[in-house]
Amino acid sequence: MIDTTFKLQDQLDKLAEWASVWQLPISYSKCCAITVGRGIRHFQQQSYAIDEHVIQSVSSVVDLGVTVNNNLKFALHINNVCCKAHRRANLLLRCFQSKNVESLVSAFKVYVRPIIEYCSVVWNPCLLKDIKTIETVQRKFTKRLPGMKTLSYHQRLVKLGLESLELRRLRADLLFTYKLVFGITDLKLSDFFTPNFHRTSRRHRYQLYLPTCKNSIRSNSYPYRVLSIWNELSPHETNFNSIATFKSSLTSEQLLRHCKVNFI
């Protein structure tokens, strides 16, 4: 571990030297150090510096809009985005002079839903409490719409033509997997899965494989989370010809059985 610490500091020294040569100032106040995984206590005791500026050690950090802590758990991120989404939803209901339900739902889709769906492939939760916390944003908003107060959440979704947020995240996982399998993204499929493409009478030909994982954090990560769902897609119901046809073939009925929370 000590050797790793020295190597990291050496790379930071080279970074500072490179920035000085190219006259690119580093914003030291925006730099921080976070230790992830085993040996957290040891590495947290180490101090790192860039050009003699000591880097602050933190337990969580926002990286490209996603809050990550040193245990690779996203409860803090979920709480943050849900609070922001609730505020935005309340603002829509207060500021819109028109109480037309269709207009309010459209505004929710544009201004609120992206907040709680951004990068969901990275942080899609497995715990029921987190799933329900996210769903509360849409649940509360739809209940405050004119004529919806007495209806159940499921009835509101059907009447408004909406899906549960958990189901939408599941579809996003599958769409990202499709992009990996068919090379639509710059990321490599081999960095996530081992291709096991073959034809069978019961399953589709784009089967994927991962070794068994007993680590609870890793087993709930994107690859392990989506693996069985992807492999179990019906070859008769799922159209792999294009991403558009694939998306349209992922019906709610087909995906609902994989959702952990039944909102019916």
Q: What class do helices, strands and sheet pairing give? A: mainly alpha
* Main sheet characteristics: 2 strands, parallel
Strand content: 5-15%
User: What is the strand arrangement across the widest sheet?
Assistant: 1-4
Count every beta strand, where a strand is a DSSP E run of 2 or more residues: 8
Summed up, the domain count is: 3
Assign a percent range to the helix content. 40-55%
Order of helices and strands: HEHEEEEEHHHHHHHEEHHHH
- Overall shape: it is globular
The number of helical runs is 13
Quick check: average pLDDT?
89
Distance between the termini: 51 Å
Nearest-angstrom radius of gyration? Answer: 23 Å
TL;DR of this structure?
This protein is mainly α and 264 residues long. It has 13 helices and eight strands. The protein folds into three domains: 2-58, no CATH class; 75-162, no CATH class; 168-256, no CATH class.
Explain the overall architecture.
- By secondary structure, the chain is mainly α.
- The chain folds into three domains: 2-58, no CATH class; 75-162, no CATH class; 168-256, no CATH class.
- Helix content is 50%, strand content 8%.
- The chain has helices spanning 2-21, 40-44, 75-95, 101-111, 113-117, 120-123, 128-143, 153-160, 165-181, 216-219, 222-231, 243-249, 252-256, and strands at residues 32-33, 49-50, 53-54, 56-57, 60-63, 66-69, 194-195, 208-209.
- Strands 1-4 form a two-stranded parallel ribbon.
